[in-house]
Sequence to fold (171 residues):
Amino acid sequence: MEPSRKIRVLLVDDEKDFADILAKRLEVRDFYVTCVYNGDDAIARIQSEGYDVVVLDVLMPGKSGLDILKEMKAINPLMHIIMLTGHARVDTAIEGMELGAYDYLIKPAETEDLVEKIRLANSHKTSQEERIRLAKTMPASKKRGWKKFLGPISDLLQKDRTEDTDETDDA
Fold:
C-alpha cells in the first residue's frame, strides 16, 4: 500500500447510529469508510468495490455476521474481516476465527483498539498480496531452486512435528 492511500474500510452493522458514529471516528483517523446496514448490501459492496478491511457485526437480522463472513471469504479468501460483537460470547468469536475472521472485538470497542486492529489487518493483507505477487513473478527455475533448498528442511520440520504429535498421543 502506498503511504498516501487511505485504508478502505467497509463497516457492516445494523445499528445505524452506532455505525455512523464509528465511521466518523475512523474517518477522523484518516480511513476511508463506507457503511452498510445489512448483509445483502455488504456482499454487494464486496463484489463491486475493493476494500482493504471489513468490520462486521456478528448479530444482525436476516443473515448473521458469521453467514456474511462465509460469503465474503468465498468471494475473496484474502479479505481481512474484524468481527464486532455486543455479546461477549467466546464460542461465537472462536467460530468466527475458524471461519476466517482476522480478529474480533467486543462492542462498544475502544476506537483506538479498532484502529490498531484495522491497521494490523491491512498490513497483514498487504504482505499476503505481496508474497502472492512475488511468487507469480518468480521464474520457474528459481522456484525449483528454492524447493531443492527448502525441501530437506521442510521434511525435517514435518518429521519433528509428527514426532511431537506422537509424544502427545502417548501421554
User: Anything to note?
Assistant: Helices lie at 16-28, 39-48, 65-75, 90-98, 111-137, 140-170. Residues 7-134 form a domain with the Rossmann fold fold (CATH 3.40.50.2300).
